[in-house]
Amino acid sequence: MADGAKTLEVTLLGRSYRVACEESEREALLQAVAYLDGKMNEIKSAGKVAGSERIAVMAALNIAHELLSTKLGNGFDIGQAKRRISSIEAQLDSALAKQEKLF
């Protein structure tokens, strides 16, 4: 376990797991757990897949598909959006700097 990492107990599909996690990443981990648990419960509720292991694999495949769809351009590309926002911020900073010189 890394320095500053603590164990956190999380629950997925009614089962508890202890996970090592940095305090600064705790909230992100809890959000990921909630998302995964929701996906697993959706699959379980559909009743087409039995067994926790199979449900976990199907959830992993669904989430991987969502991620790849986003990265490959069929969805929202967060990296591209961040680069565009940075570009716009730079343009705004430049325009504001010119305005400050007027006063």
Secondary structure elements and their pairing?
Elements: E1 5-12, E2 15-22, H1 26-46, H2 52-71, H3 78-102
Antiparallel strand pairs: 1-2
Description:
It is a single chain. Helices cover 64% and strands 16% of the residues. It has helices at 26-46, 52-71, 78-102; strands at residues 5-12, 15-22. The protein is elongated, with a radius of gyration of 21 Å. The N and C termini lie far apart (56 Å). 5% of the residues are buried. The model has no long low-confidence stretch (mean pLDDT 86).
Largest sheet at a glance?
Answer: 2 strands, antiparallel
Could you tell me the radius of gyration in angstroms?
Answer: 21 Å
Mean pLDDT: 86
- Helices and strands: which structural class? alpha+beta
Distance between the termini: 56 Å
Q: Strands across the major sheet, in which order?
A: 1-2
- Binned strand content: 15-25%
Q: Percent range for helical residues? A: 55-70%
Can you tell me the residue ranges where pLDDT is under 50 for at least 5 consecutive residues? Answer: none
| Silhouette | elongated
Helices and strands, in order, run as EEHHH
* Contiguous helical run count: 3
Number of strands: 2
